[in-house]
């Protein structure tokens, strides 16, 4: 019996996913229910299980390639069973190869075009039957576009990177961003960090969660003509990985102790870097924190993570002179940058929220 392995629909909005790695090779035996291929979608990874037992007869979508929901990724058959690829209606993304096949060009012309990022459909062919030859590509470079820099590497915008690009583009196009900044004295944070052996980020997340309870409009979203204020306080934490930017979520952060928040951050960060975050660990966020302090950044303008109303950017700790009771003292200072959706939040409540975060950090008890 021929069984299709198809791209699953992991959420209501999912339209396509990326094939990660295949755990089985063509010709190998598979058992129903065992992981057969890694699927990357909506900043999550998911191990797709074999729908039946048999032989992995054909892989139709290779690792690193995008495929639409319900596209056939592979075929499982009984040992020795024949099948026809045309009958299984596989939707295999081959945009680049198909585009090249539609354009009549010599291998050397195609190679040169790929090397310099030239769209062959723009090049006029002077070879037999209009075939594009290498000289045509070089002439196009010289006359139409000038001398182009040589391409060292082409990085496909797929998986996490593609999802992240789509989300930040949508956010910036739909939400009018405004950003305010505030300096915070973290003198007391250092003591608590040493005493409890928790990260600075955990201390910050705890302060943010408490401030969201006091300024609930920041913990909201815009749905049509309605502003919906969330009851749950779920703080997302932006994490840079080799796969791209991901935002794992600390659910009910307001109900967790500082130690619990610290443990959650460590576990989620490790999973993120391994590409093993579960779907539920990446959904349900109501507010996001992003920290670039470890890269030497003092302050920046973060882009809101839709559909949330705001995001907090955290800069590095810098020793600065501060006036205290008429005297100058050197204090460890960080700059917090709050970007907010001005359709939902006005400047005053945004400033009020940031002030509450500042107060909670500066008055924390070690």
SS-derived structural category: alpha+beta
Which CATH class of the largest domain is shown?
Alpha Beta
Tally of DSSP helical segments: 8
Rounded to the nearest angstrom, the distance between the terminal CA atoms is 66 Å
Task: Estimate what percentage of residues fall within beta strands.
Answer: 25-35%
CATH architecture of the largest domain: 2-Layer Sandwich
Notes on the protein architecture:
There is one protein chain. Helix 2 (107-116) packs parallel to helix 3 and helix 6 (200-214) packs across helix 8 (347-362). Mean pLDDT is 86; it is low at 91-101. The longest helix is centred in the last third of the chain and has 17 residues, at 258-274. The protein is an alpha+beta fold. The protein contains eight helices and 19 strands. Helix content is 28%, strand content 28%. It has three domains: 3-87, RNA polymerase II/Efflux pump adaptor protein, barrel-sandwich hybrid domain (OB fold (Dihydrolipoamide Acetyltransferase, E2P)), CATH 2.40.50; 95-143, Dihydrolipoamide Transferase (Irregular), CATH 4.10.320.10; 159-362, Chloramphenicol acetyltransferase-like domain (Chloramphenicol Acetyltransferase), CATH 3.30.559.
């Amino acid at each position: 019996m021929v069984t299709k392995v198809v791209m699953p629909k992991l959420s209501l909005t999912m339209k396509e996913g990326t094939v990660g790695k295949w755990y089985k090779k063509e010709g190998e035996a598979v058992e129903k229910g065992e992981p057969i291929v890694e699927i990357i979608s909506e900043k999550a990874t998911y191990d797709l299980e074999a729908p039946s037992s048999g032989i992995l007869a054909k892989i139709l979508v290779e690792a690193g390639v995008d495929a639409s929901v319900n596209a056939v990724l592979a075929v499982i058959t009984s040992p020795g069973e024949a099948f026809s690829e045309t009958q299984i209606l596989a939707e295999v993304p081959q945009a680049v190869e198909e585009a090249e096949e539609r354009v009549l060009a010599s291998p050397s012309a195609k190679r040169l075009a790929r090397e310099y990022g030239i769209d062959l459909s723009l090049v006029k062919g002077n070879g037999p039957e209009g075939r594009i030859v290498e000289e045509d590509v070089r002439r196009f470079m010289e006359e139409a576009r000038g001398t182009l820099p040589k391409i060292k590497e082409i990085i496909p915008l797929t998986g996490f990177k593609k999802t992240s690009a789509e989300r930040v583009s949508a956010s910036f196009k739909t939400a009018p961003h405004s950003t305010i900044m505030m300096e915070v004295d973290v003198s007391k944070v250092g003591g608590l960090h040493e005493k409890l052996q928790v990260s600075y980020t955990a201390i910050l997340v705890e302060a943010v969660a408490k401030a969201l309870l006091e300024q609930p409009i920041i913990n909201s979203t815009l749905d049509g003509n309605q502003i919906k204020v969330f009851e749950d306080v779920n703080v997302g934490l932006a994490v840079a990985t080799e796969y791209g930017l991901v935002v794992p979520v600390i659910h009910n952060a307001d109900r967790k102790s500082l130690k619990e928040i610290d443990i959650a951050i460590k576990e989620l960060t490790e999973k993120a870097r391994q590409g093993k975050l579960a779907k539920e660990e990446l959904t349900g966020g109501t507010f996001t924190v992003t920290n670039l302090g470890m890269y030497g950044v003092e302050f920046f303008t973060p882009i809101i993570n839709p559909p949330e109303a705001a995001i907090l950017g955290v800069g590095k700790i810098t020793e600065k002179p501060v006036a205290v009771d008429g005297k100058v003292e050197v204090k460890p200072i960080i700059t917090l940058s709050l970007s907010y959706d001005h359709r939902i939040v006005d400047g005053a409540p945004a400033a009020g929220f940031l002030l509450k975060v500042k107060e909670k950090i500066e008055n924390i008890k070690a």
